[in-house]
Design a protein that fits this description.
Blueprint lengths: L19 E2 L3 E6 L4 E3 L2 E3 L2 E4 L2 E3 L2 E3 L2 E4 L4 E8 L1 E4 L2 E8 L2 E4 L4 E8 L1 E4 L4 E8 L8 H7 L1
Parallel strand pairs: 2-5, 3-6, 4-7, 5-8, 6-9, 7-9, 8-10, 9-11, 10-12, 11-13, 12-14, 13-15
Antiparallel strand pairs: 1-2
């Protein structure tokens, strides 16, 4: 009668209407009409379609939607950007900068992908010892 859908692509955008994502835990959504000033933290994925002025940290993935804006420091396992970021990005995974993105940031990543048309201004450095990088290690180096 009911089938359980498994997210085989590890994509937190799939199944946003569901309360949980089996791979990434809960998905928290900052909707387009929301504005947050201060720190944001989640053990699951965070999708930002509104505005955040302050630091944001996820033990999973941060997705900045097309109308999303973050001014502050970002720490996450991976980050996907379609909107705008002004600050610092620190990820032990991949940073995907989509063609619609505007990123002005100091970046430290394991891997990066920048689509044609994206705007990036800043500096990028890479983690050297990839096997020992964790979110906790990032916090200790700040």
């Amino acid at each position: 009668m009911f089938k359980k859908t498994i997210n085989k692509n590890n994509n937190p955008l799939e199944g946003l209407n569901k309360e949980k994502n089996a791979t990434h835990g809960e998905i928290s959504i900052i909707s387009e009409n929301m504005q947050i000033k201060g720190e944001v933290f989640s053990t699951g994925s965070i999708r930002v379609d509104g505005r955040i002025e302050g630091d944001i940290k996820s033990e999973s993935r941060i997705i900045v939607g097309l109308k999303g804006y973050i001014k502050g420091n970002i720490i996450a396992n991976s980050v996907d950007v379609e909107g705008e970021i002004n600050g610092k990005i620190d990820t032990i995974g991949i940073l995907n900068i989509k063609s619609t993105a505007i990123v002005q940031a100091e970046i430290k990543v394991r891997d990066i992908a920048i689509e044609k048309g994206a705007r990036f201004e800043g500096n990028c450095s890479y983690y050297e010892n990839q096997s020992n990088n964790t979110i906790e290690n990032i916090n200790q180096t700040e």
